[in-house]
Amino acid sequence: MRLFLLTLLISFQQISYAQDHTHRLDRSLQFPDVPGFKTMKCDFHQHTVFSDGSVWPDIRVMEALIDGLDAISLTEHLEYQPHKDDIPYPNRNRSYELALKEAKNHNLIIANGSEITRKMPPGHNNAIFIKDANALLVKDSVEVFRIAKQQGAFTFWNHPNWISQRKDGVATLTDMHRFLIKEKLLDGIEVVNQETYSEEALHIALENDLTIMGTSDIHNLIDWEFKVHKGGHRPITLVFATESTQEAIKEGLLQRRTVVYYKDQLIGRTEHLTPLLQAGLTIKSMGYQGKSNVLNVVLTNNTSCPLTVRNTSRYNFHDQGEVFTVPANGELSVQVKTIERLKEVSLNFEVLNAITAPGKHPVIYFSVINAP
Ligand code: ZN
């Protein structure tokens, strides 16, 4: 009996030990909410065996849960069905339905979506938050957008920089895209797709008031494609939504409230990126060193993205150069030479791996209060 209890105790300890260390396996992407909005982590461009992907839809749900995402969409190609001899796909909502079933007991929103797969123009475009993918199987390249919009879709232009459709990799608006934008049939544009970033697409988004999107466009496995074991991550779109619902995410997308997280960089409009960075970085005073006028402060990064900053404050630092990095979900101590002892110290930083427009980085401001 005693031996049994002892064994039980040991196994219990082992279990609690394992539980204590689950965070080692937990690689959820972390981004804080911003004033007035929930920060929703989304990947709205993915494939499964129901078009040209290599996995069953439930795997996409599991991958999203591992990454701690809030919403995904499986956007199977409508017009490209290379597996149709092995996996016929008469009901084009099936991929969505299978993902929905898998996500049932989890906190993951599944948006029904499809990839409208055409030659350029208009190239490839996603329609998400649709009601019936089968109704999108029409020939006319403009009509398909109209049907999607009638279903309440949010639409975006996929990989406008794709070298199979743009030899030079330079995203360029065509007359057809201008028409789609004018008719309010096209809402967003991928500035980031899988491995690629398009500065020209960012420029197009800003010039034409389109939603800035970033997606994995995953066909195989997230871990395989983005080398997560080596510190990589899938690109995602952060959507600032009034609440954690499908409707609120759609509203956030339609209102252009997004930031893209890509290769440890953040890309978005100033009005969305700056509040995220202000919430993502916090600074705390640790007091002056001995009798000196050198102040110790600790910078804490509450995001999964390392933040590389350039000090633009009026003070320079005793133990750092002009540019330094606050590690993802980590801290950095910095010694500030304030020349005289101050009750309140203003610090500001240009965030070099955050992009608000081609060649432009946001500046964030802090006021550090010292205990008397
Ligand atoms: Zn795709």
Structural summary, described in words:
With 372 residues, this protein is of the alpha+beta class. Helices cover 24% and strands 29% of the residues. It contains nine helices and 19 strands. It has helices at residues 2-20, 57-66, 94-103, 143-150, 175-182, 199-207, 222-226, 246-254, 270-280; strands at residues 38-43, 71-77, 109-117, 124-128, 154-157, 188-193, 196-197, 211-215, 236-241, 258-262, 265-268, 281-288, 294-301, 307-311, 323-326, 331-337, 344-351, 354-355, 363-369. Strands 1, 2, 3, 4, 5, 6, 7, 8, 9, 10, 11 and 18 form a twelve-stranded mixed β-sheet that branches. The protein has a four-stranded antiparallel β-sheet with strand order 15-14-17-19. It has a three-stranded antiparallel β-sheet with strand order 12-13-16. Mean pLDDT is 94; it is low at 5-25. Zinc ion binds at residues 45, 47, 115, 158, 217. The site of zinc ion (ZN) has 5 residues, from loops.
A few lines on this structure:
The protein is α+β, with helices and mostly antiparallel strands.
